[in-house]
Amino acid sequence: MTDHKSLFSALIKAQGEFPTLTKDATNPHFKSRYVSLERAVETIMPVLHRHGLTVIQTFMDCGSGVAGLRTILAHESGAMIEGVMPMPSVKGGPQEQASASTYARRYGLLSIVGIAPSDEDDDAERAERPSPKPTRVPTKADAQQAYNARIMANKPTSEKATQSVDAFDTLTAEQKTKLLAYLKGD
Predict the structure, then answer these.
(1) Order of strands, edge to edge, in the sheet holding 80-87?
(2) Which residue from 21, 106, 116, 177 has the least number of CB within 10 angstroms?
(3) 83 in Cβ contact with 71 (< 8 Å)
């Protein structure tokens, strides 16, 4: 049995050096952005090599006529870990098969080194977007105020809503939000 201590130690050091991997390509069909295989390789491999690591990817037979991609993370000590991504048959010709293999290679590489690409293109884009407003968990006073407002507006209330106000402190944040919306008539 191979000792993986040297591999994991080197991988931890490499992970500490990986820059943020931003999505640099666009899928026009799904209107989504992703990290290209080229960007992933040129970003990841030099860092791995500095720590005596490399990635090897080979195609394999997963059985029942299903091809797969084996991704191996190997250390100069001889230790290695691997993962397999089955690639169910792709309809179409060589172009579709090449696209599926590129997809598998990209995500096999990203997953074996533990990288999740950033959704951000750059800091400027982030700065242009407004910050999300923090959500406030409604309080018992909010529920009581909304309940009283409903009564004052002569809107029908349910016995369940009344019981919920009495037991407001036992509700989850989601239940509190839903109750408040109900009481406000939203």
Answers:
(1) 53-61, 67-75, 80-87
(2) 116
(3) yes
Predicted confidence at residue 70, as pLDDT, reads 96
Q: For residue 183, what are the CA distances in angstroms to 17, 43, 110?
A: 52, 53, 47
Check residue 92 and report its DSSP letter. S
Domain range list for the chain: 5-121, 140-184
Strand 25-27 relative to strand 53-61, pairing? unpaired
Distance separating alpha carbons of residues 37 and 147, to the nearest angstrom: 56
For 145, left (φ over 0), alpha (ψ -120 to 50), or beta? alpha
Residues 6+ positions from 115 with CB-CB distance below 8 Å: 15, 18, 21, 40, 44
Residues comprising the chain, all counted: 186
Q: Tell me the two tokens of residue 30.
A: 């799904």
- Average pLDDT by stretches of 10, the chain with 186 residues: 86 94 85 89 96 96 88 96 87 80 93 84 47 65 71 53 55 72 69
DSSP string, 145-174: HHHHHHHHTT----HHHHHHHHTGGGS-HH
Please tell me the class of the 5-121 domain.
alpha beta
pLDDT value for 95: 81
Q: What is the separation of C-alpha 16 from the centre of its chain, rounded to a whole number of angstroms?
A: 19
